[in-house]
Here is the input.
Amino acid sequence: MKTYEVEVRIWLKPSVFDPQGHAVEQALHTLGYAEASDLRIGKYMHLTVQSASLSEAQTRVEEMCERVLSNPVMETYAYTLKEVALS
Amino acid sequence: MKWAVIVFPGSNCDEDAAFAIREVTGDEAHLIWHDARDLSDFDAIVLPGGFSYGDYLRSGAIARFSPVVEAVKREAQKGKLVLGICNGFQVLTESHLLPGALLRNDNLQFRCEMTELVVENNQSPFTADYAIGERIRIPIAHGEGRFVADDTTLAKLQADRRVAFTYHANPNGSVQNIAGILNLQGNVLGLMPHPERAVMEWMDSVDGRRMFLSMHRYMKEARALVGANGSANS
Here is the structure.
């Protein structure tokens, strides 16, 4: 068994309006950061998984993202997987 | 008729829904905890408003994995009536019993106010007592009621006349002003407004009564049909 550290990021699809991101972008503009645009707010999740192989871990994490962590109707996700070296 | 009102940890409109059912239809309404696995005893199921599981992850997302939702799916497949109100609507979309999703209101406000709905379909068990195009007054109370769906889904909803209600004045940015939708079979309705909060004069509207009455009549007629078939066979 290998141990993997997983980082998952989730955003609303580009086609879906993000009112939180919009409000924060407006706040940045008000504070003088006119250069800021396209601000989107998402979610970040961190987890550890035990798996026999990298490909198995990937399959399982993708399943988690599709079925639970994100709602594919309105969200997209990305993840990274890193093997944890045993000390 | 016997109604089940499902109670998740964090539901808070369950008592109101049960009150409305008893008051309007005279039927039995039972509060059913989320770990129930069998709902075959009930004629109709209501998923009430609230914040099931604290709205963790996404509203309705965790409730979807509770045992009772599997039972709700089973009864829905049999054609029993399932009404999802507010958080109940969110649970229905997360459970894929209804298409689309409900997101943060576009104005970022939690809107708690009376709204005017337009009846778009009066051919369903939930809306038969309304007139098509009629404007009814039903209050809303939500921060995440903006209905979204892709264009294909919206076209299908329209083609199948599955939009039950739209907002006269859109309070949350819902696409096409959609306030409530039906499943393809027409026995599952999800809506953000609260019909159970519009059933008494002192609630400032009684327009919600007809939803419960429509459902009651539909169930009674369905039962009478089954009874007639049964006696014809014997």
